[in-house]
Task: inverse folding
């Protein structure tokens, strides 16, 4: 399967991507996670990305396209892209990368959720410093407050989940990323998912939709 998860910040893309990637045995490629890892490692890429991420702005297209291209060249047999593409220029670059190897996307799942829900989800998100697992203080709390269930690492609030940065990220989403809904509608790849429900309900509906994509490809 070659999948893209599209949607506003906090829509639940990363939460669902982890289980979907495991189910279909494809790599989960999150550009946000890759940039945060580069930052943790203090690489030039990470330091450059930080300037943009801290302000809720998009990292320049050429930088992000470069890291995704390198990653896609190192894998075969499908992928799940989470948070990429995020601009029409990135979507066109992805089409060109796939065309080079005679591949195409199977589906673009659009996580449709209202802005109030997004703000609630992001303000309650806690992330593990060690393994990157995500929690929510109300919807998906860890067993012990502040401690990751999976690895025992510390949980923290991402700098870009603070209210003023969330507002900027939403504005950037509306301006730069929302046009991709039409872009993929025109390619007849868009599958719209009501993502405002519980994690379980969204997950079940998602698996149903992806099973249909699988069946239609026979
Ligand atoms: P990135 O890390 O990709 O952030 P994002 O797209 O803004 O996505 P999020 O991780 O905030 O949200 P999500 O949809 O994955 O939600 P999650 O599942 O965690 O990007 C960060 C930055 O990196 C960008 O601002 C930009 O600077 C840069 N960047 C990354 N990619 C780029 C690109 N392609 N081009 C340029 N720059 C790029 O869920 C959120 C919370 O809600 C969690 O607490 C979760 O537990 C909870 N939750 C999830 N689902 C539910 C549910 N159904 N019910 C209740 N709670 C739920």
Result:
């Amino acid at each position: 399967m070659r999948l893209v998860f599209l949607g506003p910040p906090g829509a639940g893309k990363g939460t669902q991507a982890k289980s979907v990637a495991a189910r279909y045995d494809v790599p989960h490629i999150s550009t946000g996670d890759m940039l945060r890892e580069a930052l943790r490692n203090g690489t030039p890429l990470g330091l450059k990305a930080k300037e943009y991420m801290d302000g809720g702005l998009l990292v320049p297209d050429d930088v992000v396209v470069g890291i995704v291209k390198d990653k896609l060249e190192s894998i075969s047999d499908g992928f799940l892209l989470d948070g990429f593409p995020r601009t029409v220029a990135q979507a066109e670059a992805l089409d060109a990368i796939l065309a080079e190897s005679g591949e195409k996307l199977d589906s673009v799942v659009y996580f449709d959720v209202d802005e109030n829900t997004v703000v609630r989800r992001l303000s309650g998100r806690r992330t593990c410093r060690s393994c990157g697992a995500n929690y929510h203080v109300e919807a998906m709390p860890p067993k012990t407050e502040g401690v990751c269930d999976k690895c025992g690492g510390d949980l923290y609030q991402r700098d870009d989940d603070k209210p003023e940065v969330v507002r900027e990220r939403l504005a950037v989403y509306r301006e730069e990323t929302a046009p991709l809904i039409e872009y993929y509608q025109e390619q007849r790849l868009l599958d719209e998912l009501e993502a405002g429900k519980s994690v379980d309900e969204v997950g079940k509906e998602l698996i149903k939709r992806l099973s249909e994509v699988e069946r239609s490809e026979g």
In short: The chain has a mean pLDDT of 94. Residues 199-216 form the longest helix (18 residues). Residues 212 and 218 are 10 Å apart (CA to CA). The chain has nine helices and eight strands.
